[in-house]
Amino acid sequence: MFKITRAVVVLVTTAALPLLVAAEATAGGGFFPNLPVGFVFTPSSTFIATIVLDPNGPVSTAAPATLTGTFGSITITRVDTGTAVSAFQVQADSSLGELRFGCNLNSTNARFVQVAQNQPGMPLGGPSTASNWLATDVTLKLFNQLGVALVDQTNTVRLIPGIASVIQQSCAPFPKKSQVLDGLPLSELVDKHITPLPPTYPDLTIPGNPSPTQQWFPGFLVLEVSLGFWALPGTPLP
Questions:
Q1: Which run of H or E residues covers position 169?
Q2: Around Cβ 158, how many Cβ atoms within 10 Å?
Q3: What is the pLDDT of residue 198?
Q4: What single string gives the DSSP state of each residue in 99-140?
Q5: For FRET with 85, which of 73, 124, 134, 180 sits at 20 to 30 Å CA-CA?
Q6: Are 129 and 39 in contact (CB under 8 A)?
Q7: CB-side exposure of 127: number of CA atoms within 13 Å?
Q8: Cα dihedral 224→10→141→225 (10° resolution)
Q9: Which backbone phi and psi does 229 adopt, to 5 degrees?
Q10: SS3 label, residue 119
């Protein structure tokens, strides 16, 4: 069982450091990846991912509402092999849409898991036409580090990783001012006489009484999931 600690804040905020120093599609989700004809999804018992994300957009229509919005980190573990980690920024035109609803756990299946009703396997990020919220080059790199080639030597897609199920999920509280700055190497990035401004986390509550899947919730999304692979029948699976 994972724990929510200040490390969550550091992971997301560190991913957004370039922004700190540089000066809606559908209700639950957004655009769905196109899977190759004939590919079927098989859950895996040996691949688990932990995703930490500031789930506040917009992603493509304007700057995010928070300075760490759309940034996150992903850790993929292959049992008996190892772990691969990367920071990322949510890609436009993905199943996450414009991230209007923040850390809304009611929308997790629609945004991260299901490609259709009762069909899990939402791709992480490709390759090819199955591109999604995680950049394809990041997806390829992570699985290569774990000994899994998603494409063959002719660049033909062999495997497409997707999310099979949610193990657990939670919303980590937005940090206070001292938590954002404590432990971050901002002193190395700005003049010591300048006090850096921490990211702000506004209240983005949607007025009225929208349905549960269309309400905004504050906090960082912390999501632990099991993975699987789309492939043509008969393809050896890792």
A1: strand 160-172
A2: 17
A3: 59
A4: -TTBS-GGGHIIIIIEEETTEE-EESS-SGGG--SS-HHHHH
A5: 180
A6: no
A7: 18
A8: 0
A9: -135, 135
A10: strand
Nearest to 220 by CA among 175, 183, 163, 184: 175
Q: Give the pairing type, strands 82-89 and 114-116.
A: unpaired
Residue identified by tokens 């960082």 is: 220
Tokens coding 93: 């035109």
- Torsions phi, psi for 10 (to 5 deg): -65, -40
Cβ proximity of 147 and 65 under 8 Å: no
Residue 188 DSSP SS3: helix
pLDDT range class, residue 177, cuts 50, 70, 90: low
Cα atoms in the 13 Å half-sphere on the side-chain side of 225: 29
Helical ranges in the chain per DSSP H: 6-15, 17-21, 108, 136-145, 177-181
Q: What is the mean pLDDT of the chain?
A: 84
Q: Who's near 217: CB < 8 A, 6+ residues apart?
A: 101, 102, 103, 104, 105, 171
- For the stretch 49-74, pLDDT in tens is 999 999 999 999 999 999 899 999 99
Q: Enumerate the H helices of 59-149 as residue ranges.
A: 108, 136-145
Question: Amino acid identity of 168?
Answer: Q
- Which tokens sit at 40? 């079927």
Report the C-alpha gap between 56 and 91 in whole angstroms.
13
- Which tokens go with 152? 């063959």
**What are the b/e assignments for 70-101, b being 16+ CB within 10 Å?**
bbbbbbbbbeeeeebebbbbbbbbbbbbbbbb
